[in-house]
Write a structure and sequence with these properties.
Order of helices and strands: HEHEHHHHHHHHEHHEHHEHHHHHH
Number of helices: 20
Number of domains: 3
CATH architecture of the largest domain: 3-Layer(aba) Sandwich
Distance between the termini: 38 Å
CATH class of the largest domain: Alpha Beta
Strand order of the largest sheet: 2-3-4-1-5
Radius of gyration: 25 Å
Number of strands: 5
Mean pLDDT: 92
Helix content: 40-55%
Low-confidence stretches: 1-5
Oligomer: single chain
Largest sheet: 5 strands, parallel
CATH superfamily of the largest domain: P-loop containing nucleotide triphosphate hydrolases
Structural class: alpha/beta
Length: 423
């Protein structure tokens, strides 16, 4: 809750402060200001259109590139928007992971695969595919066909992995271990998965699905191979395609030059495993692109399977944000999400929104953070209209910087010319 209570925003016909205090995408957050569900497609209309085209074409690897050397240019938000778009499709599996630097726990392609498998389990995709494959096997098996109605009812009742599966109660199959062995062998023959991974997954899911985490996901194994097996199981179990989003992959590339070869070699294996099954989408910024291209081994590994060319990337430019009142549309989108009295006018003079975008050079994270503090400050003062007069009089509190007449005049000149000046 904001300082002073959420009720202070009813002055503007709002239920709460519409803008995130710390604008970082947290995909599973219940707060729509943080999870990426609030998105204005008009902020990068051409880039959004190209991104959707690459996704729909099932491009093997898509890079969402930023032109800035700082965070906050909208890469994560664009990926989150796509994540939720595909999450709604019944025959599509999605995962969204947050990559880390080398001191973190999600810093290598092997780690990415482990986390993708974890999400495929936690989000129920592997469980759904396992249920479909089990029902297929029972339909084909003369020995176990009697268990088919009970198994179908069991998977319908337990549509997410339970802690313990009452398998015998539903199917009347008492020798679960023997059944697991036969089912595993059938899945291996049908999908081409490795016998070891398949047996461990089947055993965990037939007995105690809650142990999938300990017995399969975190167990020491070749996670890239396990990832490939999961993709085969998903396809055989009814999933036509997968989309996996690697947010902040640029952080993982902040490593010594000598380690780039190993990283890209592993990433190449992941791309190979994904071929025909999934699209990988990763963020990069300007310096991480140079890291990949300037390393001979890294360049060969990447360029041979997923080159950094127009067919594989979209680049976001901060200058686009101030075109055609786009930043005003962005702010209005956030306001609408929290509007409880539509008869009240917007609290912001559009010029103020454009001024903030100018101050922070089109950086979306700083724009949203500033709007959060600005409306909180104005609401606490019961300021009805947040215009330039108010901002200039309360500049440091409202926008986090001391007022500069020179910067303000540059902004006014850019408004008159209809463009943002270079600086």
């Amino acid at each position: 809750m904001e300082r002073g209570g959420n009720g202070i925003y009813t002055l503007y016909g709002l239920s709460d402060n519409p803008f995130p205090q710390s604008p970082t995408v947290i995909i599973d957050s219940p707060d729509k200001r943080l999870n990426g569900r609030i998105f204005y497609e008009g902020i990068f209309p051409d880039k959004v259109a190209k991104f959707k085209e690459l996704l729909e074409k099932r491009t093997n690897m898509i890079y969402v590139r930023g032109s800035q050397y700082v965070k906050g240019d909208g890469k994560s938000a664009l990926m989150a928007h796509a994540f939720f778009m595909y999450e709604r499709r019944q025959d599509t599996a999605v995962a969204f992971i947050r990559c880390t630097g080398r001191n973190g726990k999600v810093s290598t392609p092997e780690h990415y695969c482990r986390e993708i498998i974890r999400q495929l389990h936690q989000r129920g995709y592997l469980w759904k595919a396992f249920g479909a494959l089990t029902n297929m096997f029972l339909a084909e098996s003369s020995k176990y066909v009697y268990a088919r109605p009970g198994a179908a009812l069991m998977f319908k009742k337990h549509n997410v992995p339970p802690d313990t599966l009452p398998f015998t109660r539903f199917t009347n199959i008492s020798r679960v271990g023997e059944f697991a062995k036969v089912l595993s062998e059938w899945i291996v023959a049908k999908t081409g998965c490795s016998a070891k991974f398949t047996h461990e997954l089947v055993k965990a899911y037939l007995e105690r699905p809650a142990t999938m985490e300990k017995e399969v996901i975190v167990k020491n194994s070749d996670k890239i191979e396990d990832f490939g097996d999961c993709l085969k199981i998903l396809r055989a179990g009814g999933f036509g395609w997968c989309y996996f989003f690697l947010d902040q992959m640029e952080e993982s590339l902040d490593i010594p030059a000598g380690a780039i070869g190993n990283f890209t070699s592993a990433l190449r294996r992941v791309i190979e495993k994904s071929s025909g099954f999934a699209t990988l989408v990763a963020t990069l910024h300007a310096s991480s692109v140079r890291t990949l291209l300037d390393n001979p081994e890294g360049r060969v590994n990447i360029q041979s399977f997923a080159p950094l060319d127009e067919n594989h990337y979209v680049t976001l430019y901060p200058d686009d944000i101030v075109k055609d009142n786009r930043v005003v549309g962005l702010v209005e989108t956030y306001l609408r999400e929290f509007t409880i009295d539509a008869t009240k006018p917007s609290p912001f003079d559009p010029q103020v929104i454009k001024y903030v975008a100018h101050l922070y050079r089109g950086n979306l994270r700083e724009i949203l953070r500033t709007m959060h503090h600005m409306i909180m400050s104005a609401a606490s003062k019961r300021q009805q209209l947040i215009d330039m007069a108010y901002v200039k009089a309360n500049h440091n509190e409202a926008v986090g910087k001391e007022f500069s007449e020179e910067t303000y005049q540059q902004f006014m000149t850019s408004m008159q010319l209809g463009r943002r000046p270079s600086s």
